[in-house]
Amino acid sequence: MKKIIIINGPNLNLLGSREPDVYGSLTLVEFLDAIKSKYPKLEIDHFQSNIEGELISKIQEMGFSYDGIILNAAAYTHTSVGIGDAVRAIKTPVVEVHISNTFAREDFRHQSFIAPHTKGVIVGFGLQSYELAIQSFLNDEI
Description:
By secondary structure, this protein is of the alpha/beta class.
């Protein structure tokens, strides 16, 4: 069974109530339950933190034993050299995801310190961005 972890950064714990026109109306729990039931042959774990160091520690912890990491570092994407370095240091492939189209937002959101070290980046497809990332790991088997 493939093991995938979704690691979410700051403010993503507010899904469902935070700017639903941008981030949708599903809560994080509702979304995770739906994804897990849709992919019963995958072990899908989740971690969310608003604290940069906790995200780095989780990437390091999971980065040698999981088959894939789906990382939405949120605002840290554009500011954290440390998270980028953590992704570069691990063996597990990482897909960077964003719910909103970061290129349609403020200019500072066009830069990612994580993307150069990832398998790929998926932006702007709402919560479906996570599912597209899952599909990318499943397609590795083909």
